[in-house]
Design brief:
There is one protein chain. This protein is mostly helical. 54% of the residues lie in helices and 0% in strands.
């Protein structure tokens, strides 16, 4: 039987930045939408679908 040990370690005191800011996420969605128009293969369609999915999750400015 395994026992669970608590995780210990040093963590920085400064606040962590989000992976993307809302502005960066909006810019990324724009690039992905552009990719959809430039790539007529299924990859372009997938980029457009992902862009639409992400755009729904970004807070309004």
């Amino acid at each position: 039987m395994e026992t669970c040990e608590p995780v210990t370690g040093d963590y920085p005191d400064e606040p962590r930045l989000p992976l993307l800011t809302a502005a960066e996420a909006r810019e990324t969605v724009g690039y992905m939408s552009l990719l959809e128009t430039l790539d007529l293969t299924p990859r372009g369609a997938a980029a457009g679908q992902l862009a639409a999915d992400l755009a729904r999750r970004i807070p309004a400015p």
